[in-house]
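Section 5.1 Outputs to date
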Amino acid sequence: MPKWSVEAENLTRKFGDFVAVNGISFRVKEGQIFGFLGPNGAGKSTTIRMLTGILPPTSGSGKVNGFDMLTERRSIKKAIGYMSQRFSLYEDLTVRENLEFFAGIYDARDVDWAIRVCRLEEVLDALCSSLAAGLRQRTALACAVVHRPRIVFLDEPTAGVDPGSRRSFWELIYTLAQQSVTVFVSTHYMDEAEHCDWLALIDAGAIVASGSPTGLRAEYFTERMLELDAQPVPQWMEALERAPEFNEVAMHGNRLHLVAADSEAAKRRIETIAKESKLPVTSIREITPSLEDVFVSVMTRRRVG
């Protein structure tokens, strides 16, 4: 039987009349990279704050690292690593001094492990105020895991950093997972979700789908997806949205992603529109849906239903 690092049952959090998290339930396997995926304001941070013992739930229950969320919040805080969206480093201290400070809080003695995992050897003597955004994120992660927790919560850890730094940060997450650390990471970047072992999609405080990236595609996206490279995009969107062959039409950069039950019928319709409206087509191809496509499809069906 799998061991569960996190168990949540009907977790709810209200702020006055506003329901930020609405009766969600899920479990996270030990050693798993668990992605909490959803738009800003969906309830991701509120959920993490409950799981980490910072915020008590209005109702519901759960366990983190075996500790009860309702009665053992102090034990949870000691047992986990937590990197919030606004993790504060001491600007007038060096990277090493920040690490030693946080190590002292946790009574941790092996700061070298965190330095190696987060690849900070070359900037140990640099003031944190002088660090680029990517290095600040790596330093913040090192401070969050300096006591070698078995579970680490990362709340939007790559927000505000460039794509290269985001890729580098995910390499660090993989390194932690390879050492049997459970990583619970929230993000609104759909491409990052591809790196997770398991995902929970959250919207308006409710989990609307969950599964592995492959499983989510298989379960929630049974239709065909086409990518259309054609100009002008606004006129194509207007024409395609009226066509019965297409269930969804969405912009992706300067191209369109089209969802249809029958790809051949969809292609014929595109060719007909191009001929009748004299709208040029550069290319049409069938593609594998991204997790962003899956998420949009789940959200569309939920709101229509």
